[in-house]
Every structure is written in C-alpha cells, then in structure tokens.
Records
---
Amino acid sequence: MKRNFSIQRQEQRDAFILVTPLLLLMLVFTVYPVISNFYYSFTEWKGFGTAEWVGLKNYAKAIQDDKFWHSLKNLGTLVLYIPFGVFIPLLLAAILREGLKGWTFFRSIIYLPTILGYVVLGTIFSIIFSQTGPIIEFLSAIGVENAAAINLLGSSKSAIHIVAVLFVIFTKIGFGTIFFLAAMSGIDSSMFDAAKIDGAGWWRVFFTITVPSISFSIQFFLVLQFIEVFARMYSFIYTLTYGGPGFATYTLEFGIYRQGFQVFKMGYASSWAVILFLLCAVIAAFQIHLIKKGDLI
Amino acid sequence: MTSSSYKRNQFLARTGVYLFLILVTFISLYPIYFSFISSFKGVQEFTYSKNTLPSVWVLDGYDYVFRNLGILRYLTNSIITVSFGLIGYLYICNATGFALGMLRFKMKLPIFSFLLFFQIFPQMVIASQVYRICSQLGLINTRLGLILVWITYFGPFGTYIMATYYATMPRSLLESARIDGAHIFQQLFHIMIPMAKPMIGTIGIVGSLAMWTELPFSLLLIQKPELRPLSLGIAIMKGEHGIPVPTLSAAIILSIIIPVILYLFFQRSIHQGSTAGAVKG
C-alpha cells in the first residue's frame, strides 16, 4: 500500500518533469502573448515605445472600418466554399476506395501540391492567374475575345472567389482525399456487399452507407477547414494577392499584419487580433468537443 | 436490351470517372509542371510561350538565383534552422506525449485541453507580442529565437499525435521498466522512443515540412537577409518587382526539391501524418 503510494508520487513527479518544458515555452510564447495582446488592444501603440491607454476606442474604430467588414465578408465567402471543399475529396475518396487500376499512383499525385506549402503555392498561382500568365495566353490562343482584358486576381469582384477556389478546394483535395480514405477503410465491408445484393446504385451507396458511416470524420474535417480559413491563410494571401486589389482579399489575419507591421497601428491591429482570437476560440472549442466525443484521447 | 443499355451506362460511368480522375491529376500536377518549364526558359521566350516546353533549355534563371539572389544561403539557413528545430520538436513531442499518453497524473486532462486549445490560433494573433517578447530577450535575428517559437507553435499538435500513440501502448512496458529500476529518462529514451519509431517518423516529417514552409514568424523575427530561410526568401523575391518569372520559378524549383524528395521516400508516413490524431485506427 505504502509502496503503491510512492509509485504514484514518483509518476506524478516524472510527468511533471516531462511536460514542463513545453508548458513553459507555451506560457512565454503563446499564453502571455494572447493575454498581453488583450491589454494592448485597449491602447494606442506603434509596436514599439510606450502604449497609451485609450479604452474601447480601437474597437469602436474597427466596427466603423470598411477593411474590417471586408475581411469578415471575405471570410464568409471563403466559408461558403467549404461544402465543396469537403464534398470533392469525399467523392474522390469514395471512388478510390473501390480500388480502380492505378489508384495508389493517383493518390500519390493528388497529395503532391500539399507538400509544397502555401508560400510556394501562392507564388505559383499568382503567376498562373496573372494577366500575363498561362491561363490568359491559353484563352487567347483558343480565340476567347478580349482575353487579355480578363484579370482574375486583379478585379475586386472575382479575386476572393479565385482565392476561395484555390485555397478551400484545390489545396485541400489531396489532404482531404487521404483523410477520408483512411476513414473509409474502417467501414465494415459487409455493409457494401449487402447493399450490392439489394441492387443499390453507386450514389445510393455513397449517400446511405459511405457518408453516414464516416460522419464523425466528416465533422472533424469540416472543423479543420474552418481552422484553415480563419487561422492558416496568411502565407497564401501574402504571396497570392497581398490582400488586394485594394482590400478585396483581406482576411483578419492579413489585416492584422498590414495595420500592425506596415502602418504601425499596432494597438488597433491588436483589437482585430482579439476578435480573431475569439472566433478561433469558438472553433477550438468545437474541435476539442469532437476529439472528446470521438474518444480520440 | 436492358442488359446492353445497362452495360452502356456502366461504360459511360466508368469513362466519366476516369475523365474526372485525369482532370484532377492534371490540376494537381500543373503548378509544378508550369514552374519547372518556366524555370528553364529564357525571359524572352517566356513572354510569348507559357504552356509549352522550352524550345531552348537555358539555365539563366538558376544562374541568377545562385549568383545574385543568394539562394544557397537561404537553402543552408533552412536546413540548419529546420534541423535544430526538428531535434527540439521531437524531444518536446515525445516527452510531453509520453507523459500525457501513458503516465497517470493530476491535471492531465486540463493540460491536454490546454494544448488542443492553443494549437489552433493563427500566428498573427500573437505575432506582435511574440515580436515584443523576442526583442526583450534579444532573440530577434537569431536562429534560436525562430527555433523556440517554431517548437512552441508546432509542438502541441505533434504532442497530441504522440500522446494518442503512446496511449495505445501497453502500460506493462512501463511497469517492467520500473522493476528494472529505470528512471524516467531511461524509460523515455530506451523503451518508449524505440517503440514509437513509426509515429516519430511521421511527426518528424510533418513537423519539418511545417517549419520548412513557415512564413509569418520568419518574416517578423528574421530581418537580416543573411539569416533568411527559403520560404521567406521566396516570399520576398515574389514581392520585389522586376524579378522575371523564369528566375522566380528557378527559386521555387530549388525550394521544393527537398520536400518533394522526402515525399517520394516517405509517402506513407506523410499520408499517415495527415490522418493521425483525427481518424481512429
């Protein structure tokens, strides 16, 4: 009994030794920054020098700022593309699951863009979609009238939609397909056999067996897509559009960078950061809820 | 009659599926194809021919990025920073993951939730304060600063994956190690880490790719050109006007060689990394 007790205490101490470094790092570089960011959002501050307390002024300014509402509207537009960004990988995974000839090769290829990272992808797409890029050249070659005048990323109407298609759909196809394939490999194959005997068509099997069986993974992927849009887009925007034209492709992340590090209104940028923090906290709560519900920990 | 129309329908469906797959393959490969062919074109040729193979393969772009843009410097910086970052990252993820996945202690669940909660925030939410703290600690323009910030930012996710992995390992391993009198670091390095190798490979690759392609923190913490990692180098080249596309493409190709080779060799681990911690089994 006494020995047991000392083992427990030993384990407690051991665990403490192991988790401390990460917790310390996080206190210094994550938690403290989040908290002090709250403080600075109530000040006028250039990012250096002294900060002057101004109360809620930054927040009042934010809700009157076109850039702020543009950023939120853009995030909304991006969110509207998420269903497609979930459905297409789901469909691809359901097709590949059946083991067509050469499916492993195909699986390798579609994941390849994910490896490149957002800086490289954003840079390449900025060239591909530019007015002097290969798409316009191709359109001119096949005789599209006024192709040279088309400016997909340069027009404030189309830019955010191009960004959405590229970011929410294109860059997630490989990851999503692999993700759903792994989930589908856990479905009991007798369910598919039974459906076949019943004579159910492909789409029926897809909607009545495949999708419901992996609904947990679909919810999880949906949350990941929200995280990507709200919290992982900065590098892509930086290299693809730099928030432009004007602020047509601003997001909260990118707005913080521009206000804070480019025009040195860091106190004001901090108020955006607080709002983004709160939005992300909601998404994080969803994710933690799912992880606990799915018994993943 | 019905049987033949059924067959025809099936044939059409199959063709449709293959066309869809071919389209997706094309879209997936096009960005790399385009950068590759552009990197071997002369500036002249690029202006009038963008989609076809170069008529004359030239190395001007590569020559320029090596000589004038110091790409070798960026490449070396990335290799150094990511390698040291990776060592720290792997230690942190394994030590913390082992504790959270296998050991029994108070505060385990709160710590778990804490990690999960703080791993999703975008760099920009904390960027200004991280910058302020790093300048107070003298970590601006140092590799150490970037490495510490990277480990803190990417560590929680790797830890989570390792914890779910260690949780599936039998606790009897731990008990027999204790009977042998192994202390905690012997338990970690001699017993747990060797057993967890497959998953360590996975998080190692996922983590190094994440650091290799990271931009926001490098952009803020590294202002000296001679310390720039590749991703930052590319982003800055992209922003500078007047760099011709073949030159930029050459830089892109050089920056993706290592990740692409890693992918070719460790595809399985990388695929596993994208589902670990989210899909059971």
---
Amino acid sequence: MEYRLDRNVHSLLDPRTKLLLLLTSSIFVVGNAGEKQMYVFYWILVFLPVVLLFAEKEWKAGLIAIVIYIGSYYAQMALQHDLTAVESALALMLYIITKILPTVILARYIVKTTKVSEFLTAMNRLRFSDKFTIPISVIFRFFPTVVEESRAINDAMRMRGIEMGAKKASEAVEYRMIPLIASCSIIGEELSAAAMTRGLDVGKNRSCIWIIKFRIPDYLVITLCFACFVWWIIGRFFV
Amino acid sequence: MICFDNVSFKYSKEQECLKNINLTVNDGDVILVCGPSGCGKSTLVRCVNGLIPHFYQGELTGKVTVNGTDISQTTLRKISRHVGTVFQNPRSQFFNVDTTSELAFGCENFGLSPDDIEQRINKTVNRHDLESLMGRSIFKLSGGEKQKIACASIAVEPVDVIILDEPSANLDYKGICELQKMLKAWIEERKTILIAEHRISYLLPFITGSVLMNSGEIVKEYSAEEFRSLSEEELHNLGLRAEMVQDPAEINDCTGEDSDKKDKLILTDMKYSYQKEPPVFDIPKMEIPEGEIVGIVGANGAGKSTFLRCLCGMERKCKADPKVKYESWNNKARRRKIYMVMQDVNHQLFTDSVLEEVMISQESENKEEALKILESLDLKEFAGKHPLALSGGQKQRVAVASAIASGRDIILFDEPTSGLDYYHMNQVADILKELKQMGKTVIIVTHDVELIKNACTYIIRFDEYSRS
Amino acid sequence: MEKNNRLNAKDLINVGIYTAICAVLCTAVAMTGVIPIMMVLLVVFVPIINGIPYMMFLTKVKKFGMITIMNVLLGAFMWLTGMSYYALVVGTITGLVAEFIYRSGDYKSKKLGIITYAVSGIYLWANYFGIFFNADAYFATRQNFGQDYIDSVTKLLPMWMCPVLLVVDIVCCIIGGWIGAKALKKHFEKAGIA
C-alpha cells in the first residue's frame, strides 16, 4: 500500500473556534457573567467540553468528568445551609471545581487536539503576531516536558533518599528547582537551535499542510458563542 | 561545495575551539569528521549550518562558504534552505508534537506550497517505510523512532547539504541499521554529507573521505581507502570507537566464571504495564549473580530502562519483592539499598559543589571519607566546582561517587556510555571494574558492544521477557 | 553577531519556555488556593517560588519586548484559569514598565532585575480586584456558601487590605527576586549556564 498524506485530518473544531469557545467559557462559566439570565447558555457551555471529548473518542475521560462535575455540584448544594468553617471551606473547594472543571477540560482538549502548525496558521489569519503565537506554541510543546523533567527529578530525589533528608524547606525547594531549571534551559537551547536550522523565523510567511477552514460544527459553536454575548448584552442594557 | 578558509572560532573568553581550519568538501562528498570528545568536531559542523555565528555567539575569524554564500553574511533562515541538520539528542529537536507536522515543518517555514510539501512527504514516507510512524505523538516514540523522524524531516526538505551531529549517540543496533539505510538513500540523491561522530564503523562503507581533529585543529585528512585500512588499535589510539556493527544479543563470550557459586538476587513474577496496555515486560523468574558486572541487553523499547526503574523501587505500581539472601525487599527497601545512575545525570545532581553532592549521600557527613572517594575517582580537583559545570563523563563519576558514599551494594547504570568516545568509555569500564572490586553488584542497561566486551562478566538477554 | 534588535525565534522560544515553567509552578501553588486563607497567601507564595525561574529568564533577555510578552501570556493564563481579566490588563502595563526599567540597566543589572520582577509581578495583585471593586457581583455568585463564609472573606479582605496586598506582593517579589539572584550566583553562574 502506498502511503498518501491526508491533509484533511482535523479535530471537530477549527483552532479559531476553539479559542472563541475558551474565551466564552471563561467569561460565562468561570466569570459567571450574567448569572441567572444566562441559565440555559451556562449549562450548554458546561457540558460542551465533554461533548468535544466524546468526539475525540475519549469516552472514559468524558464520563469521569461528568461524574466529578455532578458529584461536586450536588455535594456543594447539599452543604449550603448552616455552614461551619470546615464545611464552608469544603463547599468553596467543590464550588471552585464546578467552575473550573469545564474550562480545564476545554483547555486540555485544545492542547491535545491542536497541531502547532495549524495553530500558527490559524492565528496568523486572525492577524495575531508571531511574537505571541510562537511562545504560545512553545508553551503547548513544553508543558509535558516540564512535567516529565520534574518527575524524573523527583524520582532521583526519592532514590537518593534526600527528600526527607533536606534540613530546611528552602533546601527541598532548591533541590527541585535547580535541576529543573538547568535541564529546561538546556533543552530549550537545543530546541531553539533545531527550530532555527529548520527555518523558523519571526514575521515571515509560512505555509501549512493542514487544510484550515470553518466547517459545520464551527458555525454551530460560533453561533452559540455570539448568542451568549448578544443575550448577555440584551439582559444587561435593555431589560 | 563547502569551503573553510582559515577559520578560527572561540566561544566567549574560552580557549580557541577551532584553529586555522582549511577544508574543502565537494558536492556529493560524504565526509566523516572524527576525533575524541572536545576536539571541536561539533563546533566545525556548526559553522556550516550557521549556528555559528548566528546562534552561538563568539569570535569568528576566517570565512565559511556553502555554494559560494558566505555563512556569516546571510541569515539562518536562508542557510536552512540549503543545509539540513540532524542533532544528537532526539528529545529536544522537535518543535511539533505530532510526527506528520514535524516532517512538514521545515518546508512550511520556507513557505513552499502545500501541494508540493504533500508530494515530498508522500515520497519520503514511502521510500523509508515510515507509514507506521505517521500521525503519532513524539512523546510516545522510542529514541530510535525519534531519530528516524528527525532524519526523515530533513529528507523532506529540498536541501543539498546534510549535517549529522553525532546522530548515533542514542541508537541501538537496529537504529543504526536504519540510519545506514537513510544515508544510502541520501547518497543516491547526491547530497553532500558531513558527519561529526566518534563511532565510525557503521559509516565506513559510505564515506568518501575523513577528517581527524584534535584540540580544535585538523590533524590529518584521510582518503576513504586510507581510513578503512586503519586497524582497531590505530583507531583506539586516535580516541575513536572501533566496534563493529553488531547485535549485542549475539555476544556469548563473557559469562562469569564462577557465578554459580555466588549469592543471587532472585526476582520472581515481576511485571510492569502502562495502564491497560499489555505488560511491557513479564519476568517469571530472573537470577542476578551478586558481585558481578551484569549487562542487560535488548532492543530499544524493550522496556529495559523501565525494568531498572522498577528494580530500584521508583515505580510504585510495580509490586515485586526480590529475594536477596532470603530476605525480601519491597519498593521502599529497594529505594534504600539500590542506587541508580540515570541516563540523564543532570536530574540527580542537586547541590552547588561536588563535595557537597557526595556528602549528602552519606549516612552522617564525613568530609575526609568523601574526599577519599573523590580521589579514587579522579575527582578531587573538582571538589569545589559546581556539578553542572562538569563534562558529561565527570558528572557521571560524581553520581558514582555519591553511590559509593551512600554505601549501597547494588548500583544500576542506564546507558552509561551513550555518546562517549573510546577514552571515556574505557574510563567508565574501569570504574565498573573498580566497583566490582569493592564487592558491589553492578547492573548495566546498555547497547554498547565495546563496553559489554570490555567490562561485563554476565549477560542477561532482556528480549525473552519483553512483550514487544 | 545578531546586531539588530528584532526579536528572533530563539528569544520567543525562551519566552515560551520560561512562561511554561512559571505557569506550571503557579498552578502547583494555586491548587492550594481553595482554602480561603491560602487564597490570600497566593500573593506570598507565587512570587517567592517564581523568583528563581524569572531571574533565570532575565539573563536571557537582551532585547525589548520579551518581558511584556511574558506578562501578557501569564496574564492571559490567569484569566483563562478563572482569575479575572484585570491580571491581563494590569500585567500588560506593568510588563511594559518593567521592560523599560530593565532596559535602563542595559539588560545586565541584577538589582534592576529584582525591581523588574517586583514591578512585573504586580499582575498577581490585580487578581484580587474582583473582590475589592466588584464585591457585590463577586459574592452574588457565592451566595450559597452562607453569610458566614462571605463575612469571613470580607473580614479577611476589607478595603484597606487592598493596598496592603499590593505592598505584600511587591515585598514578596523582592524577596523572591533576591532568592533568585542568589540561586543564579550560587548555581547557574557557577555552573556556567546563566
């Protein structure tokens, strides 16, 4: 069988739509703008990220997210009355989970399903400068590396038996931070060298092999997001 | 054509890394730049791909031209259209997260049309049999697979000069064979190739000439015939690795003489798997003789490194209690009794001086003893230095020093000689032998045939336990 | 050899890397923010922890723009993870001011580096604006914790705490920056990687 590149590989949404959805979600779910008036939109925005997970066939992650969400939602509702200090701390914790979880899932979805090159091109079409999009794509690429490195360092500390041996808290932090930053800075240097020998530069036109365009799901989500803003503005200024 | 015209270079303030280099490489040549570590071979190839002077700043005199263009007068972006580079470390040379985009990355940066790039990718993938690697996350590839993608992504680009900077450092036998195939294809396409390397045997069939360097100077230029006729001893004298391309699983001649009589570390029913996947390895029973230098060999990705991590108690999920002298050790006990020198030693050096590093490993801090250990490893002069300022081999010895200081009897090494030249490989072998003299059990995961022949007294073939 | 002051890919990759490190550390600390008192103490711990990577970052800064970009990205990160957009607005402005401060020392002075860190770190303080300036809206969404909780948070954060938190933020940044500068000297410079 001959291999043929399929340039039409894409996730359900276009990078631009993903960004708009993230923005909308952070305003209306995390920021809670509009409150009661936005009731219906609120719940759509809460569960949309799970739908996206299902679209990527991440059934298990999606179900776990729903269980955690519903669990903490009802738990904090049940805790509403006559709170002691401990209960109110617990309630707040659960409340924050219900607020943040949908956005966290959405952010994870974006990082997992957006290709670097797709992102750079889509943002370029929105006239975002390379000066912001290149660092952002490096952040995507680097999160797993930072986590990987800090795990390796943590392992090394456990193996050498100095996680307990550190006399002061400052030493415990120092022993973790120094190798982490040293190692990340070396990897970063090599990464930049490699990227630059492959022609990465700022402010130059680059092409993209992936076909980037709005598709039907994009139009649906974009309509939803605009509807949110319009409904909110109506409620705020005209009622 | 690549031309060096009386080129000298130094990174700021240090001593000169290149001294008066004059060299001409014709189109279609395959030139091996070799020499011991620190001889300046990497610096030399960096002058060609433009990293010097555009990325690594320093003092450059003389002129380097590629196809008539003066490298220092142009930009990295322009150079990158003609010169492609494969680096040593597969972990840090990818900008993308998925492999397909990584292949396209260079061409996208040049602004080639998507149709053109598509054709180039199709051609490369079919030619090099890469279909199974397409569309994968680079975080889930083995070292060998990553290096294959790195080579392929240069093959996609329309470059005519290809630089390889120690490409085999992290490769096993199979990976090297793949690299050879890639080289063969490039030679058919009449690319000009420049390789900095000290493992040379796998390159011998391909080269059209070789340049030997030492302390920043070109010592000698060889024709291909002259270079191929050098004997193993001559190569070793030049600081080069002479090992033949050989599958380490085929080595038979170094089982310890009296290992039957020794006490044994007995592992039973040890397995490990990531989440729901089938186990990476499954060991019904394995016996490791104590007081020997045990080499564990097997293909890249067979789970050898994971095995070491399990053995020293770092993987919580791995429940196996090996019996040692009829006493069974759980994960926590093993973390106290087994020491591992990691492949990336940077992760296990924490303090601001070599002496301190050794002392935090001691049960109770004892400066005199620590100095004694450093002396036995030739590290005394570095006692006050920062561990991260040392060279790779020295860092490794610091890690060994703290292993000795910790008083543990079992010491594990994960690929201790990747990227080391002949001299330093021998040094590692000597250290291993010294540890054996002290009565320690040394367990090494490696695919370095020379190291195995040189030091190992017992071999365990890991492939039988591996599910892949 | 790079004589012009245009930002190149290397600079932007450095910005990305250190932003990633700061964001990871920040998230690790912020996990504890669910306990009310920790919410207030974020302004203490985050600047101290981030001091080392930030000072290391400054050693890579040699051109105008890098500090501002990092601040904008960190501010956007704050916004998207549920703080308020004030961090983005304030972060952009303080980043720009910090940029000028660091440039005045020719991108070398460590003392100015610490001040740079203190100024750019003000965006952390801006995270609390929601509680101070928009308290009704802020608590309207938290009604169901009972009046006790609202009282306890309001008690913890009366209006006069607003300037106090700013001072705390700046002081902690200076401490963090100072620790960072010390770590640079003790480790990275000695090791030759700064």
---
Amino acid sequence: MSFSFMGKHNGSHPEENKSRTSKLPIVDASVPKIMIFPVSMHIGAPAKPIVEVGDQVKVGQILAEEGGFVSAHVYSSVSGEVIAIEKRGVIGGEADSIIVKNDYKYLKADPIVEPGRSQDMSKDEIISTVRKAGIVGMGGATFPTAVKLSPPPGMTIDTLIINGAECEPYSTSDHRVMVEHADEIISGINLSRTLFPMLRRIYIGIEDNKPDAIKALEDASADFDDIFVRPLKTMYPQGSEKNLIKNLAGREVSPGGLPAEVRCVVANTSTIRSCYRACEFGEPLIERIVSVSGTPIKEPKNLRVKIGTPMDSLIEDCGGFAEVPGKVLGGGPMMGKPVSDLGVPIIKGTTAITVLNPEEAEIGDEQDCIMCSECINVCPVSLQPILISEAFERGNIDKAKELGAMDCIECGNCSFICPSKIPLLDNIRSAKAAIKQKEEK
Amino acid sequence: MAQAIDVKGKLRVGPSPHVRSKRTSAWVMDQVMIALVPPTIAATFFFGWWVLVMVAIGITTAVASEYLYQKLTYKPIKIHDHSAAVTGMLIALSLPVTAPIWMIVFGAVFAIVIVKQFNGGIGRNYFNPAVAARVVIKVLFTPWLANWVLPGGLFGSGYRGVEAIASATPLEFIGNGAQVVPEQVPGIFDLFMGFNIGGNIGETSKFAILIGMLYLIFRRVINPKIPILYIFTTFLVMTLWSSFDFNFELTHILTGTLFFGATYMATDYSSGALTPEGKTVFAIGCGLLTAFFRITLDHPGGVGYSILIMNALAPYIDSKLMPRIYGHKARPQTKFDRQSENV
C-alpha cells in the first residue's frame, strides 16, 4: 500500500494481480482451424476487403486495404481459404470480418519490404513501411501508428516517450516483451532518430513493479546517452499518454490537443518493436503478445498469438476455466471491454485477456455520496468526478462541461475508488455524449 | 475445443471499470467508530462506567431518530450506512459526565433530524451535525453544563455520583486574553494523558485521541493535513500571542476540544471542504478562528464555533479552489452548488 501524505495523488492502487504471469516466458499459442479478421481493428475508417470467398491466401497477405488516411491494412496470419466475409462479434461490438480456414501449410507471402536494410531507410520509407505493415497502437488505443509518426507540419518532435508502464492489473504482455525483446525495442527507438531529426531525449517509462524490465532496457540502451529508462511509481493510470508526458517530459497537452504540440510522441513498447520488425524483416503486423490471466484461469500464460485467433482457443491453451467466470475482458479490468461470447478474435490492440470470477466482477449497490473526495484525489487529470456526475444527473449539461467533462480520459479511477459505488464514469461518459450532441446542434 | 465449463449466457457485460475497491461507506464509518474507542476507554477509566451508558444512549438515539425520520417521511431507510451511529457517539463523548440523559437525547435528535436530515441527509449537510448539536447545547443549556467535574476513576462518581467535585476547565484560566499559564492549570503531561482534568468525557485524554487520529490516518480515512494543520495553526498563533512561551502554547493545544475536534469533527466529509487545496484552507481557517476565540472569549466553545464557521465557508472555498484540470491554464470557473437532496 502506498501512502500519500496530502491526499491528492492522481492515481489509485487496484490490486496488481500480475504475479501469476510476470515471470513466465512468452510461449506460442496454438492456431485453430478458423481464424477471424475484423476489418476494423483500429481507430478510423474500416479497411476494405480485397479478397473474395474462395480465395487462397498466404501468411502476410493483405486481406483488407486501409479505408482512408486514418486506417490500417489487415493481413492474414495464416495460409488457407477465405470461407466467408460476414459480420462477426468482436471485442466491444460487431464488425465485418474475413473468415479464413487455416490449411496449416503456413505458405508465406513476400515480405512487405526488402529485409535487412532498416538502417538505411529514409524518413518517408520508414513511415510508408509502418503504414504498409498495418501497425496501430498496440497498447489498446489502436490509433494508426504511421499517422502518429507524421506530426502536422510545423511541429517538431524533441522527445520520444516509450510507454512500458503497463499499469492495468493482471496484464503482463508488455512486461514480457520488454524483458525478452529489449534489443528490438531499442532498435525501434533508433529508427525514430531518422523520423525526428530534432530528437533530444528518449524516455522509457516503466512502473517500478517491473525491475527486470527496467534492468533489461537499461542494459540494452547502455550505449545511448539520450535514452533514459525511468522507473515510475506503480499507480493506475501511470500509462496514460497525458500523464506520461507530464511525468516524464514535464509538459501538459492542451485540451483536445495532440502530444506533438508539446514536441512529444508517445509509443507503446510493443508498437515500437513492431515498427522495427516491419522495417528490418518486412513483417506486417500479424502477431502480438497477449497475457491470459485471472482467478478462474487454470494456467495463466503469456502467449505469442496470431492476430485473428478466437479467445476460446487461448483460454484452452491456458487449461480452461477452473470455475465459472463472471466476466471475460479484452484488456485489463480497468479499461478492458467485456465479451459475451468467447468466439471473438484477438485483434491488434488486445493486450490481455482478463477473466474475473463472479465475486470479483461484483460491483456492489449504489449508495448516497458521503463526500469523501476520493474521486477527486485519484483523478489523473484533476477533475471533480462527483460534481460532473451530479451535474449530469440534474440535467445540467453546461455545468458538466464547465467542470471539464470533456477532459476525462475515462480511466475509471473514480468509479473504482468510490466507497458508495456511484457509477461516476458512466455518468461522465453520458455527460460527454450529451455535450457533443448539444454542440452538433 | 470441448470446454469443461459452458459459459454461454453466463458472462456479464457492463462498462469499465470492471473492478471496485473493497472500501464501502459503512466501512469508512466503522473506522471512525473504531477510532473513537480509545477515547471511550480513557473516558471510562477516568469518569467511570457511566460513560458507556452515555455512549450507548447517544448511539441508540441517533440511529433511532434517523430511522424514525426516514420512516415517517417515507424515505428509504439508510441507517445501515452507520453514519448516524458515528454522530451519536461523537455527541455523547463531547458532553461532561454530569450531562443529564435528556441532554444527550436532545443533542442526538437535534443533530440527526435538524442538522442532517432537514439538510438533505448524508453527504448533503453543510454543517457537522455533532458540532452543531454541541454548540446549541452549550448555548441553551449552559447552567446544566457548567459543573465540570474532576475524574473520579472507573467506579467512582459518574452521573449518579454525589461527590462530584465541581471544577473549572483549564481553558478558563488560559483563555480570555491570558498570555501566561496560571498555577492552577495541570502540567503538560497530565493534560496530555488526561489525568486529573475535568471536561467533556471523550476529550480529556489527548493521548487516546492521538491513537484514534493515527488509526484514521493510516487507514486512509481522514486526510492527515486537516488535524495537523488545524492544531499547528492554533499552536503558531498562540506562540506569537504569548511571545514564545512554550508552556503556554502546549497547554493551549492540549486543552479543550482542539484535539478531539481536529481529529473527529473538522475531518468530517460532508461539512468540510472537498478540494485538496480547499482542505488546506479549511484546516488553517479552523486553527486561526480557534486561536482567535480562545484569546477573546471568556468561556469554552471556540473549537465548535470555528468548525461551524468554516463549514459555512467550505462551499465558497471549494468554488474558488477547484483543481486546475490537466492542460488547462486556469481553474474551472463555476459555482460550487452541490445537489441539496439525495435522490
């Protein structure tokens, strides 16, 4: 338990629950017969399918092309036959999906670029390769990385922040990537030197509950005096982009602004690693690391997963359930999305599968606010969640806006900490929707 | 892919976050009651078993009046949040052992019905119910309260005790413009432990209150800066007022309701400030006012008045000190108007 003398700490301390997987090396997940590739695994326009039912596809072949500037290609991670293109359940809803029947031959498509020359690539080449590889933010945000790496004209980048905080309870995928692939992360960072010629400092922020990851990256970056591995206090949501920029670079992004306006770019460890692998080996984004954990899981694991693998196959790999699960989440318990069907596929932004038992998933009955001010103390962007929530409940949308509802990053700390179990974040989300609706009129 | 457990239709969905902290409102109130146990034990030790009767009457009346009020007004019954019990306990402990039963009952009913429920119930009351009740009792019933008695031990005196010795509280010697400690006042150690001093039963042993305070701080129930800044501010003003008479300042912070009020009353959630900086101003304000009343008044009660005044100012303080939101240049400029009723 950490203790902050003056009460305001801008974060909370949910139980970490990482110990069951944090020491386990990454192992390959089994690959099932049927793979599902949603055309919308990213923020932005859905990709457009370019294959038809009956087509034979190879590993690393494009199934759907980007549907706009803010979009990303979708690749097949197996070889086989396209057997359907239809709506399927995905984490957080439904999406058009390309269904591929695995032939287990793993015939490979040509690499997206000639391998072995990432060092000689120009800025434009790197960005186009990252775009071609279909890379998106792999920490969960799934924003197309090529767009992020091309800041608007006039904005120079002097600080690169690598997000290795992994503050979500249970999740250990980034942790294992940092321990096992520190060199590839550093190589990815070195590519960014070509992208941002004015780059002066590179911070790697890692929560201090991962000393082995800190050590691995310190060792891997020993030759570079502009790379700083910074241990961060273990506290949720230490890995939020805005807070990393504040804590590591000492800058604050203006409301609704981009990190680039304060000369920063933030990238997740797995994302920067994928950028390196795309440029160096010509690999599109068809694999990622997923930690599968939670009380009902028999043998939690860190798995190397082919994107498109349905969740139930991974749960099977982990020995199945020891008890009836209450909630199954794509992601961690603070920001993850619940699924009602285990047939949904792993996508580019799925960091973890977290399974809660019915007791852990219990929210508790809502009671009157006792004005303990804990929601104010834990808000990472210094909002007053209870006041926004009450303003919304009274129908006072303008007031909710004045109190900064639109600045909410939806980390969930307020709802988590509330002793009266008030659904603060739900109310703030509703307030945001109402504000947007009002402004569109 | 045969799964041993069929999950179809069993999985819950719902918006994030999917876990909640274990802390509940009732747990928080229970912690305050636990923290009131050391002063209760000390009071029983000094003033006799009658203390336990007083506490029992306070809790019973407070809970019963909340229950009856909610029943009679067709509101949901909310006594299970344990907040009424805390109020009842505070009222009993802030009266002298000579206080008649009807006075405890009056205080508890006044606190719960008028101060708390009439103002919208838990979390909505702008004044601390226990503080308001004790101030009203002080104003209305001073003749029944003036007979401060010296402690008579575990089996001695008490309400029924005929040999209760009337005495003055130390405050009457060091307040009202005094700048030095007269000889009648007990020594610092006695004041700290509560030996041989009269007063409200829960307030005489600062040692017991300190244990309660530390418990609440380490349970993260109260914000430590409130009691610390409150007591320290009074200490500082008294230091200046007495021209650095160390004995005088120490005697001041160890007498009267200061410790008890700073620990259990100024830290009240509903009636205190909500914002982090507002809490700082609130605590310092309480300290300044207490010092002011101690210097100017010729009777005890400064802590109660101070907390009530700061309670009244808290919404204004909060509206001026709303935290600056990340990325914004200025604090939010909006009126601090809390909902006045629980829905």
